[in-house]
Amino acid sequence: MDVTWRRLIDDIDWIGAILASTALGLLSYVFAMITSSHDRLRDPEVLAPLCVAVALIPTFIFWVGRQEKAGRPAVIPNSLWRNRVFSYICLMVFINWGAFNAVTFFITLFFQEVQRVSALQTSLRFLPMVVSGAITNVATGMMVNRVSANVLVVFSSTLTAISALLIAITDPSWLYWYSAFPAVLLSPICSDVLFTVSNLVITSVFPSKTQALAGSVFNVVSQIGNSVGLALTAVLAASVTRASPHEDKLSATALLGGYRASFWACFGAMVTMVGVGTWGLRRIGKFQTALTPRSVPGRKDSSAEKETTRPQWAMEKTGTITCTW
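Predicted structure:
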């Protein structure tokens, strides 16, 4: 019992966890407060937490760097970001999750507040997203060892960017099938492809002892991107609606201007993501598995063969990532 408590105290970076949790909690609070209006940043109850959160971020970076140099546990080691592919993957998932959730949120408002569609009919209009998401997951699993990973990510990002573009130019008088349907259909493709590719990349560029940490950081970055994306687009939509010449700010016409501004912002974010994926993942190739026999009848296994008990990923000079058992 003493050993367990000692490990609980010594093997966890409690200070780093408190710094990171406090900063993220305060930022989430600030984002929630400013969604209705960016003018709330002037309020003391919003400005004070924002200043504290901003100050905690460099403090956290300094602390984990100090912990890592001293050979002590660090909740998120700074060395994790030295891996170029992982850093680009995290940047892409940050942009994608923010844009995807924002588009989904404002499409819902577009259907209900602008087109005056009931909640049930709005739900039915999102069914194509479920179908395309399921198909994308199956197709990605089948193609990931046949098509270059960067091609999959860039192509799926382009499709999702087209989704944001289609809903941005949609006229409320148009039928659902004209542009809203393909927009909903294409919106989840990048998220599903990126999630699969990212997990394979994490298992390929990090040793087994670091893969769980890298996967956790990946998920945290996606949730932060979700919060930031929703907050920024909500502030943008509210600001455009307030600046609209219409007296009734809750009218469908006034709300439409704000929603369209958010859709265009998401389109720009996805185009940026296409550029990040094209450049950052340009050296990532296919994911392939090569099965190496563990034993040959009539011959004893060598010690090297016996040690091969788990998949070991290695990136070849050709850009193809192989997994040898």
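Summary: The two ends are 38 Å apart (CA to CA).
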